[in-house]
Amino acid sequence: MDWWPWCDEAFEEARRRGVPVLLSVGYSSCHWCHVMAHESFEDEQTAALLNEHFVPVKVDREERPDVDAVYMEAVQAATGQGGWPMTVFLTPEAEPFYFGTYFPPEPRPGMPGLRQVLEGVRAAWRDRRGEVGEVAARIAGDLAGRQVTYGSSASAAPGAQELHTALLTLTREYDPVHGGFGGAPKFPPSMVVEFLLRHHARTGSEAALQMARDTCETMARGGIYDQLGGGFARYSVDRAWVVPHFEKCA
User: Fold this and answer.
1) Which residues have a Cβ under 8 Å from the Cβ of 9 and sit 6 or more positions away?
2) Which of 20, 31, 161, 182 is a good FRET partner for 202, with 20 to 30 A between their CA atoms?
């Protein structure tokens, strides 16, 4: 792969050649980032296709969290979920028009293969450039609107009603059997636990304290906790905190 860093020169190259940019965002301890790199980016045919028809840009989210945050917003808004590796196709003006996360080398049930995606994006860029540009401009405008909204409200602290609504939402999502929130895969909800403890300290809510305490206890007693070395795995692949993902986060 002829990877470019995130830089003006990469987008100038895309404009010069008249091709889109493939942005791949990941980080060193991301398991599926390495899987996709081995399956697809190290494959000669896939690499040749990418190098010929795209400008491939590789970004480490830990080095460029600003780039990661912008395009992860787009991925989550469009697909309802996010994660790494993050795979985004951009115009030479850095506007996203197609995105996803991990793509296998060959199609699987409910999941297109990377080469299939590359050929589809290549055909759309070649045959429906105007339509692609309209989609990209619409997504870029939506992102700009979201940033304005977040920026304008960032200085306003949430009021009592917003905090109460947040607590009700968490109560509905809480797993009363295994602790934590939602189903598998289940991530350590550090910010949620902090919110619940602060809410308890502020209001005396026993429900908030119970959810925080039970979540921490079930995590510590489950397989997600490293009993020998300490710290937690990045997430559990099941809802009961039994089978950890190998990445260590703390």
Assistant:
1) none
2) 182
What is the CA 246 to chain-centroid distance, rounded? Answer: 18
Q: Which of 99, 63, 108 is nearest to 80 (CA)?
A: 99
Q: Of 205, 209, 206, 232, which is closest to residue 219 (Cα–Cα)?
A: 232
CB atoms within 10 A of CB 144: 10
Residue with tokens 């409910």: 110
Other Cβ atoms closer than 10 A to 171: 13
Compute φ and ψ for 223, nearest 5 degrees: -75, -10
Q: Which of 61-65, 104-108, 205-209 shows the lowest per-residue confidence on average (mean pLDDT)? A: 61-65
Question: What angle do helix axes 114-127 and 129-153 make, rounded to 10 degrees?
Answer: 110
**Domain extent listing, the chain:** 8-152, 157-250
pLDDT higher than threshold 90 for residue 104: yes
Residues 219 and 225: beta-carbon distance below 8 Å:
yes
Per DSSP, what are the bridge partners of residue 225?
Answer: 232
Residues 66 and 2: their CA atoms lie apart, in Å, by 23
- Using DSSP's 3-state secondary structure scheme, residue 188 falls into coil
pTM (predicted TM-score): 0.63
DSSP class of residue 30? -
Residue 248 main-chain phi, psi, to 5 deg: -100, 130
Question: Measured between alpha carbons, how far is residue 28 from residues 31, 63, 233 in Å?
Answer: 8, 11, 15
Q: State which fold the 8-152 domain adopts.
A: Glutaredoxin (3.40.30)
Which position has the token pair 């994006």? Answer: 121
